[in-house]
Design brief:
By secondary structure, this protein is α/β, with parallel strands linked by helices. The chain contains ten helices and 18 strands. The protein has helices spanning 40-47, 94-97, 163-174, 190-201, 217-223, 235-242, 258-266, 290-296, 310-322, 341-350, and strands spanning 2-7, 15-20, 28-38, 56-57, 61-69, 81-84, 116-118, 124-127, 137-141, 145-147, 183-186, 207-211, 227-230, 248-253, 268-276, 299-302, 332-336, 355-359. Helix 3 (163-174) packs across helix 9. It starts with a strand and ends with a strand.
Length: 360
Amino acid sequence: MVRAAVLPAVNAPLVVTDIELPDPGPGQVRVRLAAAGVCHSDLSLSNGTLRQPVPAVLGHEGAGTVVAVGEGVGHVAPGDPVVLNWAPACGHCHFCGLGEPWLCANAGAAAAQPYATLAADGTPLHPGLGTAVFAEETVVSAGAVLPLPPGVPLTDAALLGCAVLTGYGAVHHAAAVREGESVAVHGIGGVGLAVVQAARIAGAGRIVAVDVAPGKEELARAAGATDFLVAGEDTARAVRALTGGYGADVAVECAGRAETIRAAWSCTRRGGRTTVVGIGGQDQKVTFSALELFYFGRTLAGCVYGNCDPAVDLPVLAEHVREGRFDLSGMVTDRIGLDGIPAAFEAMTAGRGGRALVVF
């Protein structure tokens, strides 16, 4: 038996309880978690903004040590440190064939299949986003396990599984930030802090962090922001004032709210790029006039998992961490246990702090 935070139903409180995990079958790996990040997507899964079969064990940003492997698994072995990949590409669907593994049509298949049971009564449990890392141990497909490159602390490495890959990819792949360009980052949570650091690594000139919470300024500046703005009606005007009157070359939205997306778009210069990383609900409608779409010539693009190929990008990120260019621990504002996840959800909803990390 292992301890896990179980979501009994959508909008129900999490329950920390014992679950039974099976031995890994063919093509599966059992992992003992060292740490799991609490991501806004987990909150969205719990409240129904994103679909997830329940009851479920949530959590998709994790790192740990391989306990056992099933038949046919050769790229990891018991004792290996690994990072979990919540969106493993199948390699053969239409999108994988186009070289876009982040859009894989089958990446979410594991979330729909029960993977464990409640110890108390045998109720089948689903793995949140296919990984279920809000637990001491998990069993996942081999494709969801990435060897952790040497020199990266195992606990902090959990952040590489979602926030850092997403933020890094948003800057280096989706927006393709060039040296000297100005970048406005809207929403300074875990992903936003990763975007700020990635923009610094890319050689961005001015990096403007924008958030509704004034208390995020210290975090943002420590990550590399040159300026900090409290979000409001004059945000776009303030960004233009900091960028020679033109607006940011690139704006990255990390909150998933209609008003934030619109603000990011409005603070982008003519011909600039607006990249949306945040995941909003279907009720979040963003409107644009036909004239402004023509006149401003901006590019508005969504970004899934940073448009990353984790197997390729993880070693690159690990090198940045080893060389001190990317600070993982600085993104963490709270280290908690499984019973601290509800409070971490509340903090995210209120816009407080950076990343909360469940440490086992």
